[in-house]
Automatic annotation (TrEMBL), chain A:
Entry keyword Transcription regulation: yes
Assigned keywords, A-Z: DNA-binding, Nucleus, Transcription, Transcription regulation
Entry-linked Gene3D superfamilies: NAC domain
InterPro entries: NAC-dom, NAC_dom_sf
GO annotation terms (biological process): regulation of DNA-templated transcription
Protein name, entry field: NAC domain-containing protein
Transmembrane listed as a keyword: no
Signal peptide positions on this chain: none
Pfam families: NAM
Species whose genome carries this gene: Nepenthes gracilis
Bilayer-crossing regions: none
Sequence ranges assigned to domain NAC in this UniProt record: 12-168
Automatic annotation (TrEMBL), chain B:
Sections of the chain in a coiled coil: none
Record-annotated membrane-spanning stretches: none
Keywords: DNA-binding, Nucleus, Transcription, Transcription regulation
Domain of life: Eukaryota
InterPro entries: NAC-dom (IPR003441), NAC_dom_sf (IPR036093)
Annotated GO MF terms: DNA binding
Protein name per its UniProtKB record: NAC domain-containing protein
Limits of the NAC domain: 12-160
GO biological process, one term: system development
Length: 340, 193
C-alpha cells in the first residue's frame, strides 16, 4: 500500500495528483463519509467552513507536496441562519454565496447527487466584494433511486457535503498576457484561439448584462425570428434561472427520448441549426453558415443564438446520461466552445 | 484508460491520476532513468523504438486520460510508417522551481501524415524531454556514462482537441453557464419573472 499523508510529509508518488471525478467524490468519498465508513487514506479532511477563509484552505487541505490548483474537504452543513433554512456559510472575512442553479450529477444514467456553485465575497452582505474563489459543494441525492425525481426539491440541506475549492482563472488577465508572451508558432495558434474565444465570451456577457438591465431577461430581441413552436417549454426553461437553486431542468428532463430537446417537433430542430451555426462561426466558416440561416447573418443575432444555447446545453446533459467527465464538453455546446 | 498502470501496483485511493509537471518528468523520471537509478513508481515503459505512429501507443505506453508517456532513445529520423513528426518548438528550457536552474529541454512536434515536407498535419502533438547539458555533466561527474544521458528522452503524446479543457483541468473550471450566472450576479437591477 502506498502511503499518502497530508501536509507536506507526503508520499504521493511523483507525478500523481488528486483529480477525482465528480462521481468519485460522491460515490466513493462522500458515501463513505456519510456511512461513517473508514476511508483508507485520509485524503479529504474535515473543515469547519465558518472558521476557515478560502486562502487558508489550501494550506489545510494540501495533498502531498506537489503544487495544487484545487483543494478538497468535507464540511458538515448544520449551521443555519436563525430566520430561515439557508445554510450559514459566513467566515470572519466574508461569506460564500450560491450562484446559478445546482447541477445534477449522474452516474450510469442514475442521478447520484447535486453540485452547488458558490462564490466567496469579502465583507458582509449585501456589500461584499466578489473574489475569484469558487467552491463546488457536492451532496448526495437521497432520491437517486426514485423512479422519477423530476420536480423533487426535497434534497436535504443538512449533513455532510464534499467540497472542491479553486481560484477562478482571470480571463481578462490571461488575454493580456497572451498577447505579450507568445513566442512560437504553436503558442501563437493556441493563444490566438483562446484570445478570440475570450473576446467572444466578453461580448456575450456584456450583451446579456445590457439586455437584462434594459428589458429584463425574458425580452430577448428577435426571439420571434425563430420558428419555435414550443414557447411554453422555452418559458419554463427560463423560469428555472430565477428560481431556487434546487431547481433541475424540469421541462427538458421531462422528455424521455434519447435526443432530449432536439427530438420531436420540427421547430426544435432550430436548436441543432443554432448549434451548428455557432460552431461553424467559431470555426471561421461564417459565410457558409449564414447561407443556411439567413436571418442570423447579423452579428447581433449570433449573440442572440448564444444566449439561447445554455439551456439547450442542459437539456443534453440531463437526458443523455452524461459521463462525468464529458458532460461539460458536449460537442453541441457552443458556450463551452467559447471557453475551450 | 489506465492500461499500463495495473491496479496491483498502485493502491492509491480513487481520484489520483498521473498528471506530472514538466519538471517532475525531467527530475523524477528522465533523470533517474538516464542515471539508471531506481524509479519508484516505475510507471513509464521504455519502448526503445522511435518513432511511433501516435495511434500505436495505446497498450504500449503509459496512458492516463488521453495522454501517453514513454521513454525512448533519440533518433535523428522522425519518420514513421504513415508519416512523420514535424518539429514545432525547439529546445524550450525546463527550469527547476527549487533553484531556477535549467534541468532539461523540451521539443515539440506535430504528427503529419504523408511524405515530408508536404504531409497533412494532424492534431497529434508530441513533447520530447531531454536532460540539459548541465544536468548531464553533473551526473557524469558522478561516474555515469555520458553517452547514455544524451540518448535518453521521455515522450508525452496527446491529441490536441478543439476543446482542450475537456481533459483534466475542466473539473476546476467553471462551466460556461456558471460564468454567465456569475456575471449576472453583478447586475443589481435584475429581477426575474
Amino acid at each position: 500500500m502506498m502511503n499518502v499523508s497530508l501536509n507536506g510529509e507526503s508520499h504521493v508518488p511523483p507525478g500523481f495528483r488528486f483529480h477525482p471525478t465528480e462521481e468519485e467524490l460522491l460515490h466513493y468519498y462522500l458515501k463513505k463519509k456519510v456511512a461513517s465508513e473508514k476511508i483508507d487514506l485520509d485524503v479529504i479532511r474535515n473543515i469547519d467552513l465558518n472558521k476557515l477563509e478560502p486562502w487558508d484552505i489550501q494550506e489545510k487541505c494540501k495533498i502531498g507536496s506537489s503544487p495544487q490548483n484545487d483543494w478538497y474537504f468535507f464540511s458538515h452543513k448544520d449551521k443555519k441562519y436563525p430566520t430561515g433554512t439557508r445554510t450559514n456559510r459566513a467566515t470572519a472575512a466574508g461569506f460564500w454565496k450560491a450562484t446559478g442553479r445546482d447541477k445534477v450529477i449522474y452516474s450510469n444514467c442514475k442521478r447520484i447527487g447535486m453540485r452547488k456553485t458558490l462564490v466567496f465575497y469579502k465583507g458582509r452582505a449585501p456589500h461584499g466584494e466578489k473574489s475569484d474563489w469558487i467552491m463546488h459543494e457536492y451532496r448526495l441525492d437521497d432520491h437517486s433511486n426514485a423512479s422519477n425525481s423530476i420536480g423533487d426539491h426535497s434534497t436535504p440541506e443538512e449533513g455532510w457535503v464534499v467540497c472542491r475549492v479553486f481560484k477562478k482563472k482571470n480571463y481578462q488577465k490571461a488575454l493580456e498576457n497572451s498577447t505579450k508572451n507568445f513566442s512560437t508558432s504553436v503558442d501563437l495558434k493556441t493563444h490566438f484561439l483562446n484570445s478570440s474565444n475570450e473576446v467572444a465570451l466578453q461580448q456575450i456577457l456584456s450583451y446579456m448584462s445590457n439586455t437584462c438591465k434594459q428589458q429584463g431577461f425574458m425580452h430577448l430581441p428577435q426571439l420571434d425570428s425563430l420558428t419555435f413552436d414550443q414557447d411554453s417549454a422555452f418559458d419554463s426553461c427560463y423560469e428555472s434561472i430565477g428560481g431556487s437553486d434546487e431547481n433541475t431542468t424540469e421541462p427538458c428532463a421531462a422528455k424521455q427520448g434519447g435526443e432530449g430537446c432536439n427530438s420531436g417537433s420540427p421547430g426544435l430542430n432550430d436548436w441543432v441549426t443554432l448549434d451548428r451555426l455557432v460552431a461553424s462561426q467559431l470555426n471561421g466558416q461564417a459565410a457558409e453558415a449564414t447561407k443556411q440561416l439567413p436571418c442570423f447573418a447579423d452579428p447581433d443575432d449570433h449573440i442572440m443564438c448564444l444566449c439561447l444555447s445554455p439551456e439547450d446545453h442542459d437539456c443534453h446533459n440531463d437526458t443523455r446520461c452524461p459521463h462525468p467527465e464529458s458532460a461539460s464538453s458536449s460537442s453541441l455546446d457552443p458556450m463551452c466552445r467559447l471557453l475551450a | 484508460m489506465y492500461d499500463s498502470m495495473g491496479d496491483s501496483n498502485f493502491n492509491l485511493p480513487p481520484g489520483f491520476r498521473f498528471d506530472p509537471t514538466d519538471e517532475e518528468l525531467v527530475l523524477h523520471f528522465l533523470h533517474r532513468k538516464a542515471a539508471r537509478l531506481p524509479c519508484h513508481p516505475d510507471v513509464i515503459p521504455d519502448l526503445d523504438l522511435f518513432p511511433h505512429n501516435p495511434w500505436e501507443l495505446q497498450g504500449k505506453a503509459l496512458s492516463e486520460g488521453s495522454k501517453w508517456y514513454y521513454y525512448s532513445r533519440r533518433a535523428p529520423n522522425r519518420s514513421t510508417g504513415s508519416g512523420y513528426w514535424k518539429q514545432l518548438v525547439t529546445d524550450e528550457p525546463i527550469i527547476s522551481s527549487a533553484n531556477n536552474k535549467k534541468i532539461g529541454l523540451r521539443n515539440e512536434y506535430v504528427f503529419c501524415v504523408g511524405e515530408p515536407p508536404h504531409g497533412a498535419c494532424t492534431t497529434w502533438i508530441m513533447h520530447e524531454y531531454r536532460l540539459s547539458a548541465a544536468a548531464t555533466r553533473s551526473s557524469s561527474r558522478a561516474g555515469r556514462s555520458k553517452l547514455d544521458h544524451k540518448r535518453w528522452a521521455l515522450y508525452k503524446v496527446y491529441e490536441q482537441t478543439s476543446d482542450d479543457t475537456s481533459d483534466d483541468d475542466s473539473s476546476i473550471e467553471l462551466s460556461c453557464l456558471d460564468e454567465v450566472f456569475l456575471s449576472m450576479d453583478d447586475l443589481d437591477e435584475v429581477s426575474f419573472p
